[in-house]
Amino acid sequence: MNKNLVVRARKAIPQGISRKLWVKSGGRCQYDGCNIPLWKDSLMQKDLNKSYISHIVAASEDGPRGDAILSEQLETSFDNLLLLCDECHRRIDKREVVTHTRKSLTAMKIKQERNIELLTGLTPDKKSQIVSFTAKIGTFEPTINFNDCVEAILPAYYPVSDNIIQLGTSNLAIKDNKQSYWDIHSNQLEDMVKQNIKPLITQDKKTHFSIFALAPQPLLIKLGTLFSELSISEIYQLHREPKQSWKWNNEEDALDVRLYEPQKILSNAALVISLSDNVMDERIFETLGNDVSIWKITVENPNRNVLQSRQTLNNFKNQVRNAYSKIKLHYSIDHPIHIFPVMPNSCAIETGRVWMEKADLPLILYDQNSNNNGFSKAIEIKNQ
């Protein structure tokens, strides 16, 4: 300590400033990544004030981030104060002082107070239920992180709670080249939507859902039919390039998605969705025979990273709806459409969502599986 410094009494934080700090912070630790509530004992859940009011610029010149002039000027300034828990208070004042600069601590304070203000001002139309659905893809068991979902929906929507509604059965031993795999997952998915989703829609028809899913495409189409366009839902896509994220790139230009119709109408109807890769007609003939008319939805250059913008997904959805309507003109109401999907996951969900149970033809969904030497029948979706 500098022996020439004049020791002065520390000023008390005015009650109004202290109250403002509690309100603006939501009564939570403002250290980035902590956020624990400071008004209760986390173990006993009893009311307890366990907060510390800490200084960004130290109250004394020789303190952490102290300054000969600013320490006294900012000692009781709201903009210089952080509400912290005991551990984080000690962290910024007694440990790792070099990493906790005025700039970094001020950024923490601004970020946390902004988030609290946004959340407390949240209107019903901004709230969303986060829903995830996963199922084993080959030997890969996918997972979906709640924080990644929250990052994707902000700032357009905010999570209703810190709990994710999880659909699906994990760690199923049966492989996806077996019919029992599709039967178990399909039935389980129906049950879980009935238990976890339907009551929310019944309670409030304006309930908004943010849907994140990683699963084989027939199951994703099935998921879409269970939500349908009657529910208010936003579908998200996991983007792997340039950085893995669920967040839509609003600056990406929308792609032109096209529907190609067959020249002749034959006994069977197939809808090929070729976005992630090219699907040759010969593969459809190998599965259904030659007596089949093929409608195809595709883009100029199919590839696994084709879907980057929400508008491209909307363009795709419109073409699927268009295909269902056009195919229905040529077949009886109980005649199935054979769906061959090679597309991004969000497109698969929307393929199911735009299907109308009471108006459209039934669907037979196929899965591309190398263990079955190509496409094989997976799930049937019946109409009324």
TrEMBL record:
Q: Which Pfam families match?
A: SAVED
Ranges for domain SMODS-associated and fused to various effectors: 189-381
The protein's matches in CDD domains, at most eight in alphabetical order, are given as: HNHc
Taxonomic superkingdom? Bacteria
Q: Where in this chain does the entry annotate a coiled-coil region?
A: none
NCBIfam families from the entry?
SAVED (NF033611)
Protein name, as recorded: SAVED domain-containing protein
